[in-house]
Design goal:
Blueprint lengths: L4 H11 L9 E4 L3 H13 L3 E3 L2 E6 L2 E10 L4 E3 L1 H4 L4 H23 L11 E5 L7 H12 L4 E8 L2 H10 L2 E6 L19 H10 L5
Parallel strand pairs: 1-2, 1-6, 6-7, 7-8
Antiparallel strand pairs: 3-4, 4-5
Length: 210
Amino acid sequence: MFRDRKDAGIKLAARLKKYKNKGVVVLAVPRGGIEVGCEVAKALKAPFSAVVVRKLPFPNDPEAGFGAIAENGSVVILEGPSSWLPKEVIETVKRQQAEEVKRRIKVLRGGLPLPEIKGKTVILVDDGLAMGSTMLAAVKYCRAKKAGRIIAAVPISGGEAARLVGDAADELVVLEKPSYFYAVAQGYEKWYDLPDAEAADILKGCYNLP
C-alpha cells in the first residue's frame, strides 16, 4: 500500500536505481502518472515529460474502455472489449479522443514537443495498470519513435494487464500485483483523480523538464 502517488514514485524509483545517470528518458502517462514519474525522474536525474495517451471509452460507459490512442495517432484496440462495437462507433470514439489528446498536449505540456528518444532507453511511468491499454499505446508510440529500449514501470497492476504490457515492453517493473485486483486506487491510501491544472504544475516544476 502506498500513501499517495509521491510515495509510490519514490518507491518505484528505488527499484529503478540502476538507471540513475544512465541517459534514460522518463515519460509519464497522464494524468496520474505525472506525479509518480516526477519522483522517478528526479531520483534518476533523467529528462522528464509526459506522453499524452487517451483511453478509448465505451459510449455508454465512459469509465470503461476498449483501447487507447497516443499523440502520434498510434491506436491499441483490446480485442475482447471491442468485439461487439460497430466499426463506425470505434472510428467516432477515436476521432473524439484524438482531439482530446491535442487539447491535453496544450494544457499539460504547453504545446512543447517531447524529448528525443530515438535510440534511448525510455522508462514509461503510470500510477498503475488496470486494463493496460494506455500503457500499451505509449509503448507503441515509443516503438514508432525508435526508442532503443522501453521499460514500463508502475506501482501496482492487475495480472492480465501486466501480462499484456510485459509482452509489449522490453522490461516491466511492478511493485505490487494483488491476487485480487479490482482498481488501481486499491493500492493507495490517498487517491483522487489528478486535475489538469495540478498535473501541469507538477510537470512544469519537475526536475529537468525539456
